[in-house]
Amino acid sequence: MDWEIEKRHKECDGCGKSFNDGDICHTVFKLSEDEEAGERFDICSLCWENGHHGPSQEEMGKSILYWKGLVKIRAPEKKEEVIKKSSIEQLLKKFMSSADPMRINVSYILALILERKKFFLVIDNIVEKGTGKKLIVYEHAKTGENFVIQDPEVTSDKITEVQEHVRELLDNI
User: Fold this and answer.
1) Are residues 71 and 89 in the same domain?
2) How many domains is the chain built from?
3) Cα–Cα–Cα angle for 160, 164, 169, nearest 5°?
């Protein structure tokens, strides 16, 4: 039987005191008569020790579940962007027009980063006639600007070198 059990309440159902990180929470889940649904009661240790266990014994009948747990309250994590998308885009534009021998590899990795961050959208994949070069056409999600990036088909033995080069470039932004 599957029941929809709501998450732990923020306050004790006995005294109304807020649960803090590290508190013990006693939970009683009282099932309805048809055992299709239920009601959750979260009780702090003090109320539990003083005999307040949520619904009375008569109300609970035989259809209850009980568990005890440690309250863990995590502060919401702020996602801090390590490197700004605009910086990555500027670096990409710089490398697309540079003579650096790593230009194709770096441009490809930077474009992938921007794609993963939903900054670039893949519009098309093209194989250039004659050379067989694989090209990826990206569109900037906000500006509509197009970028054509060559897929360098980096081998696994070269990928570490390219990643390190890109990491160094990004660290120096």
Assistant:
1) no
2) 2
3) 150
Record the pTM. Answer: 0.51
What backbone phi and psi angles, to 5 degrees, belong to 43?
-120, 135
Contact 42, 29 (CB under 8 A): no
Rounded Cα distance, 172 and 149, in Å: 23
Domain of residue 123 covers: 85-171
Q: Which of 86, 92, 103, 101 is CA-nearest to residue 143?
A: 86
Examine the domain organization and report whether 92 and 137 are in the same domain.
yes
Cβ-contact 38, 90 below 8 angstroms: no
Residue 51 is given by DSSP the state: T
Q: How many CA atoms are closer than 13 Å to the CA of 59, on its beta-carbon side? A: 10
pLDDT in tens, 151-166: 888 888 888 888 888 8
The pLDDT score that the predictor gives to residue 163 is: 81
